[in-house]
Hints:
By secondary structure, the chain is of the alpha/beta class. The protein has 3 domains: about 1-85 and about 275-305, 3-Layer(aba) Sandwich (Rossmann fold); about 85-270, 3-Layer(aba) Sandwich (Rossmann fold), CATH 3.40.50; about 310-390, 2-Layer Sandwich (Alpha-Beta Plaits). The chain has 13 helices and 16 strands. The strands form 3 sheets. The chain has a 7-stranded parallel β-sheet with strand order 8-7-6-9-10-11-12, with helices on both faces. A 5-stranded parallel β-sheet has the order 2-1-3-4-5.
Amino acid sequence: MYRISILNKISSHGLKRLPAEHYEVASDLAEPQAMLVRSAKMHDMEIPASVLAIGRAGAGTNNIPIAEMSKRGIVVFNTPGANANAVKELVLSGMLMAARNIGPAMKFVAGLQGDDATLSKLVEEGKKNFAGIELPGRTLGIIGLGAIGGMVAQTALKLGMKVLGYDPEITVDAAWRLSSEVKRAQSVDDVFKHSDFVTLHVPLIDATRHMVNAERIALMRHGAVLLNFAREGIINEADLLEGLESKKLRAYVCDFPTEKLKSHPHVIALPHLGASTEEAEDNCAMMVVDQVKDFLENGNIVNSVNFPSVHMPRESDQRLAIANANVPNMLGQISTAMADAGLNIHNMVNNSRGEMAYTLVDLDSTVPEAVVKKIRAIAGVLNVRVLTAC
Length: 390
């Protein structure tokens, strides 16, 4: 029986994929093998020694102490792309709202007083203050062409926009999904210089903190619109406000309201709605549950943020799953321990990612506990599991 602790509400569409005869799922479980989380802050949380995996039902993992989990050999999963359509739709909504001055226009109408005839007159007099622009022919600059950025690009093209993209770490799969009509920018600065709208789809790391600052805002076209549905810290708020006040920026659309931004007349600040759709929550839950379930039962790793992807179809009933530091001669020591015990390796896969490595071994016979202890004692081995097929 596997035990999975739930730290936030997880969609039942995901949880029902864990059969009750093999899984106990609840909050505050003692000695769980895995934990499922959405937004709960885990940095100051005591993670039980029994935990082998943490599944984040969403893309961002800032709420999880990744470095500490890696040291303990705990695999952290996320769900890239599961909420991509929800965020894409919000980005496009924000772009249209900014282009047509929807926010200020709604506030204007809400503040009108009088009977219908008076309102009609005031509307006709006031509407000239909210004249907007249309999207066809405008250039959308996209920084980050992963699942979300790629979907935004494809939809913008269908709206008749030109698209300029930049992503130095784009994956092969993401590149294949992009239309040839998406033009490749040479740098982040290139995107800022040549776009009418700029949308950000990058993680918050040291290299992206305050990526948008006074220098980059100065590069932008007069009256450009900036959209941020990635992370708040990517923007230098003081520089942004200066850009808005000088009218260099037409509008700023974001999912991260702050005290200074929430009431600014040229800011559309939303309450972190990016993935807040029923469909996105269901997709994230199903995806993370499937990944954690496959890891617990078969040792496979897909969409981990701290361990390499390792997937091996089962070819025997006995499997070893070994998480270890990526150091020399690790495979040799593991293989020697099994060979000394007379175990025949049916199949083996080993992958590494930075300082972490992971090995799956299918064997033709039962693995003695003495062999498990011997492998566990190898310097750099973080944990060892014997997985017997059901």
